[in-house]
Amino acid sequence: MENKRIVIFGWAGSVHVRRWAKGLAERGYDIKVISLGFEPIEGIETVVFPRKGKWSYYRYAAQAVREAKKFQPHLIHIHYAGGFGLWGLKAKFHPTLVSVWGADVIDLPHRFFYGYFIRKILKKSTYISATSKMLKKATIKILPSAKNKIEVIPFGVKLPSSLVKLPPSNKIKICYIKALRKKYGPDILLRAMAKVVREFPNIELNIAGEGELREKLETMIINLNLEKKVNLLGFIRNEEIYSFIKQHHFMVMPSIMESESFGVAALEAQASGRAVIASNVGGIPEVLVDGKTGILLPKGDVDRLAQAILKLANDYDLMQKMGNAGYEFVKENYSWDKSLDMMTTLYEKLINEKS
Fold this sequence. Notes:
By secondary structure, the chain is an alpha/beta fold. The chain is 41% helix and 18% strand.
């Protein structure tokens, strides 16, 4: 029996698109990714059109559709309703699955043109997947009829084969793994750290990521006298994430973005047996059990964030207990294999219904 052929319209530079493409290929599907910008995905047939301005999606829509139909797919999967959704509309293919990621159903619909376009692609799609319950709710809010054709399929994570114990307690190390952007709150974290070090000087914060706030953060570190306590490490490859996390005692995610659709970094930390302190925004409460696998806080509250960091830093046993609980939580609810099972089950359902 021939393998089922799947076309993915999505950005080849996305860690999630790359993981889905490779994971599905390992499950026996023939995958073709059609992208705008970035490099081909190793081991996956990839067509990349150059990104040339804001009209690039429209400019290459016809070519993208031709490339898709040349593959004679059994299903087209659109990752992110905005942008790549245009290619889905042009393809007029059935079945088409649209995966909503966050801004496409939370931010874009507030703009008239984009709102019309997003509703249209969702309406025309055969089925919709959302990465969190929060995103499912947001999708139904902008298109009530979507409630009859939407399913939550999270970005699961791979679990290490076993728990790794916390580093020694002689120095507490905490980490941040996000882009250096205002919406993720790295500046809030620095202000909290300035308070923390006054009471607990034996602590170190390692910030992994790049972004437009880097220069501002460098200045803040100097002005807050944190040069010996905070390190800006730059971008860390996804393949190095687990190794990096395991060098730390817990992770901090001070996001202020209500449209934070899903906390993959929180899952990766918990999968590594590390507690997480995070803002209570968007879909994050779905992937962190407050008081059990970590601590949820109001967004933007510097004092509460500092108090939470001190609470964990002063209690090694609590850090270990939360880390162990996090590992079990992810294993039970958010394993990568389980996410692949859910996606392939949906694929087969949609393909068989067409037949």
